[in-house]
């Protein structure tokens, strides 16, 4: 569990002004073991404005604090980035796992997506590898 001071320092390191909502959203993400959707965050902050929460997440993503996961469910999930992420480059080239039973998505940072070359003329924007199956809790 992070203290308010640690959360503030983390936001400042990523050049994000530590407002009350940003601190609450970051604390929520830090305390979650799995990536979460905007809907999950909105449920946790029922009295908060959905647009404000969305903008908070976009600010976090643009400043290298979180990365977005497209797990094939048409609902993006958000997870904290590693310390290697920054504004210019997200270091999220790891496998993600989506459980068909419980619907949770997991970051598997120890399993790196292998490098590859694209044919001439193709320009890579991002790489996303999602493995689908059953998580240990649902097995």
Write the layout of secondary structure elements.
Elements: H1 4-13, H2 20-31, E1 36-37, H3 38-44, H4 50-62, E2 66-69, E3 77-80, E4 94-99, E5 105-112, E6 130-133
Parallel strand pairs: 4-6
Antiparallel strand pairs: 1-3, 2-3, 4-5
Helix pairs in contact: 1-2
Helix-strand sequence: HHEHHEEEEE
By CATH reckoning, the class would read Mainly Alpha
Overall radius of gyration: 16 Å
Walk across the major sheet and give the strand order.
Answer: 1-3-2
Helicity range? 25-40%
Looking at the structure, what is the overall shape? Answer: globular
Q: CATH-wise, what's the superfamily?
A: Winged helix-like DNA-binding domain superfamily/Winged helix DNA-binding domain
Structural class category = alpha+beta
The CATH architecture name reads Orthogonal Bundle
N-to-C CA distance: 29 Å
**CATH level 3 topology:** Arc Repressor Mutant, subunit A
What report would you give on this structure?
The protein is α+β, with helices and mostly antiparallel strands and 139 residues long. It has 4 helices and 6 strands, in the order ααβααβββββ. A 3-stranded antiparallel β-sheet has the order 1-3-2. The protein is globular and about 45 Å long. It starts with a helix and ends in a 6-residue tail after the last strand. The model has no long low-confidence stretch (mean pLDDT 88).
